[in-house]
Amino acid sequence: MKVSSTLIPTLKEAPAEAEIPSHILMVRGGYLRKVAAGVYSFLPLGWRVVQKISRIVREEMNRAGASEVFLPAVIPAELWKESGRWDHYGAQLLRFKDRKHGEFVIGPTHEEVIVDLVRGDVKSYRQLPLNLYQIQTKFRDELRPRAGLMRGREFIMKDAYSFHTNEEDAKREYKNMFDTYCRIFARCGLAFRAVEADTGAIGGSLSHEFQVLAETGEDAIVACDNCDYAANVEEANVRKVDAAAPGTEALSEVSTPRARTIEEVTKFLNVDAKQLVKTLICLVDGKPVAVLVRGDREMNEIKVKRALGAQEVVLANDRTVDEVTHAPVGFAGPVGLQVPVHVDHEVAALASFIAGANKADAHVKNVVLGRDFKAASIGDFRQAAAGDHCPRCDKGTFKGFRGIEVGHVFFLGTKYSAPMKCNFLDADGREKPAVMGCYGIGVTRIAAAAIEQNHDADGIVWPVPIAPFEVHLLSLAANDPAVVDACNDLYKQLNDAGVEVLYDDRDERPGSKFKDSDLIGLPYRMAIGKKGLAEGIVEVKARKSAEVLKVPLAEAVAWIKSRVETERLGSAK
RNA sequence: CGGGGUGUAGCGCAGUCUGGUAGCGCGCCUGGUUUGGGACCAGGAUGCCGUAGGUUCGAAUCCUAUCACCCCGACCA
Asked: What is Dmax (Cα atoms) for chain A?
């Protein structure tokens, strides 16, 4: 492709709205333009990246035995009403009416449609198992789209759904998809980690997220430095600690004027946050309870929700705290509370601790569980953190990472097939609901994640497999006939050799071309100028290593071809 | 949805407090000189100052409403 005859509108300055590297660089590099909040146009370079990623996804899904389909973006409301999600999916679901006032949604995900398809046409165990996938535009009306492609409202997703006669087979496919995802992300040149995840509203017992490690990631994850255990902090297990012998010193009140936060109290009493306990008043399905975690920890609402079998857990507002503790926020403690007190393992293991006195400007020391208050339950209620001992291998400790979720695999069981009556006739003559799994990959998000992981001060540094082109050919003297001839010739030869080349044939000064080239970030740059041509060489520069080589013109095509071909497949494990 | 902020040329911004005929840099067009890391000179085009209403002789500027966008939080297959 010639730069002169396509649209690559590069910008010297970053648009004011973009903050993170991937967003800034995709706009500056002429890959992407915004149309509305969270809705983007992909320009030629951007769309080529999406196609490159899609191709890798397709190849690996097909290799894994899945079949591609294409489901509608517009879905009748009745299917969503049948699954119950018309009422439960919430405001993220974009709903609208057609001219006959029929209700529709724009699909944020496609369990309903696929289940409807399969239940209509799959009647026998002989037709199973089945894994159907599509690469398609989704729309989720996010409250706050942000960070360009990272969290858009309209985005491209690969979603796959598998159907099985039994759990064992569904789990085999789960593993198959897990392995396939590892191959896909490795081929895309991403450093990633598969982590155990919360199954959320989707339900089921098995779920892994694939997280690309990046500072700008929205998700916090922990990973063991010894074994391969890794999990979203929402999900990560925490190893039980051994209990100390209960303290014997008497409970005593201390004055702590205006010391509300853990930080203020530790400073005032000159103690470590580990000796303090946070008493968090929560509303669990509307009823107040207290949750105790150590002062240096954060409560994990998801764990509380699960442990108490609740639908909803929210932190109580100031007024409720006042009603429950008879004290202003900041002085809550377990002693004398009239609501159930749920105690984190770590707190239960303390000999004694300091907590709020349920009285303004006061805390109590030497609080002992069992003696001074009773626990309604003891469990794992805190967020995992870096430094925790690994619950899996018992030897390692957690390290903390930020991640971008680019894929998610779920074992669904019969969550959708049972209520929607997606049944088949088994070999034993009985009708059974299909056992399902679903598997998603954020195709457009991969593009953003790849840039977050691969950029420098000058621009993007694409890995070869998903770069929009493999080679950026620069003509450094667009008005010198010899240089132009040499470039045209090389351009043709590269194309003939099957090397993907973007040819900057514009009548621009070399400086502009170099800057644009670094910004756009193709893996290899081949530049021909008067000087080089006189020596019969083309200058080749690797974007990543900045290594510069002078290659004889006659050998240039073969040289770059072999170089690119070895990198094209990526580092599939 | 709560808090904060911004809408002025394609992009980045000044001008708004204190009302008086719309500005800068980059980009774009023409001509010339240049040509290995975002050149220089000369000339030029580009705006319903987000939108609607109001105040005023006069509004980018003051008032009211509204829309859009961004950031933080909450939310989230």
From this structure: 94
Which residue matches tokens 């299909």? Answer: A434
For residue A410, give every residue at least 6 positions away whose Cβ sits within 8 Å of its Cβ, in sequence order, or none: A199, A202, A204, A206, A207, A437, A438, A439
Considering all nucleic acid strands, name the nucleotide whose C1' atom is nearest to the C-alpha of residue A142: B76
Instruction: Give A142 CA → B53 C1' in Å.
Output: 33
Name the nearest CA neighbour of A133 among A64, A188, A199: A64
How many angstroms separate the CA of A107 from the C1' of B62? 47
DSSP run (H or E) holding A254: strand A252-255
The spacing between the Cα labelled CA in A220 and the C1' in B21, in angstroms, equals 57
Segment of A252-261, A285-294, A388-397, A559-568 carrying the highest mean pLDDT: A559-568
Spatial distance from the CA of A106 to the C1' of B54 (Å): 41
In this complex, the nucleotide whose C1' atom is nearest to the CA atom of residue A108 is B77
Give me A534's structure tokens.
Answer: 């006189």
Helix (H) or strand (E) holding A484: helix A481-496
Q: How far is CA A266 from CA A261, A278, A366, in A?
A: 9, 12, 15
CA-to-C1' span, A170 to B5 (A): 50
**How far is A160 from A320, CA to CA, in rounded Å?**
45
DSSP string, A178-194: HHHHHHHHHHTT--EEE
Residue nearest to nucleotide B38 (CA to C1'): A512
Nucleotide nearest to A518 (CA to C1'): B37
Mean pLDDT of A489-518: 95
Residue whose Cα is closest to the C1' of B12: A13
In this prediction the ipTM stands at 0.88
CA-to-C1' span, A84 to B66 (A):
36
Q: Is the dihedral of CA A286, A290, A296, A299 positive or negative?
A: negative
Please state, in angstroms and rounded to a whole number, the distance separating the CA atoms of residues A482 and A502.
20
pTM of the model: 0.84
> Residue A535: which nucleotide is closest by CA–C1'?
B36
Lowest-confidence region among A93-102, A154-163, A485-494: A93-102
Burial of A548 (0-12, 13-18, 19+ CB in 10 A): exposed
Angle CA A306–A310–A316, to nearest 5: 105
Nucleotides in chain B near protein beta carbons (<7 Å): 1-2, 11-13, 25-27, 34-39, 68-77
